[in-house]
Amino acid sequence: AWHLQGCPFSLQVLAYSRHTYATVSQRLIIAVIPAPGGDPPYQGEFLVGNRNVEELLPVVAREMFLQASAGVWERGDLQVINITSALDRGGRVPLPIEGRKEGVYVKVGSHSPFSPCLESAVSPQSLFRCSLGQQPLASCYDTFAPHFSIRWCNLTLLQVWPSPTTPGPVWGSGVLEDDGDFQPPTEVAPQDLLPGFLVTLLVPLAVAVLLCLLLGHLMCCRREGV
């Protein structure tokens, strides 16, 4: 929310336990501040298949994920931008067997370009292999394993550039400038509205009279014995 930067606002969080279905609420005061150096223009979104969203919210888990991302990104200025459950992206609820997880989308950003490993993972050749059910091309060692199981066929790379700001209105002195004498608009020639009025009034009246005559004829002159 760009318009909330620098202004604290209140956010009420409502959570429930997936085991007991007990609910708890907490109100948080959050202050949105601009990111140092601006938003990272290079952003990559990874799908972690062996985690739930609450398992990646702690700081320790996010730092571990950033270290693993730095190994394939070959950069050190990474930061987590967003964490979203795969259920919010149309994923299915996993079966309660074998400890299966929901899956988490983690978006990571950097001010440095993507590594050749990431670019090869989203190349047309890799997408073709994914369509065949095969592993995509990757020219680097998977530093996410064994803690994070990345589904490389769901990798998304984005380049986000800041949009130019639109200049705001320029306030003047509040006094109208002298632009000569006022020129009133050209006068409109008077129109004859009587024909339109007669048509609007007489046509429905004539139709009503005809309907009354027809109804009277049917009710009075078409009776049995008349």
Automatic annotation (TrEMBL):
One of its GO terms (cellular component) is sarcoglycan complex. The chain crosses the membrane at residues 193-215. The keyword Transmembrane helix applies. The lineage of its organism: Eukaryota, Metazoa, Chordata, Craniata, Vertebrata. This is SGCA protein. InterPro entries: Sarcoglycan_alpha/epsilon, Sarcoglycan_C. It comes from the Eukaryota. It comes from Furnarius figulus. Coiled coil: none annotated. Residues 41-157 form the Sarcoglycan alpha/epsilon second domain. The gene is Sgca.
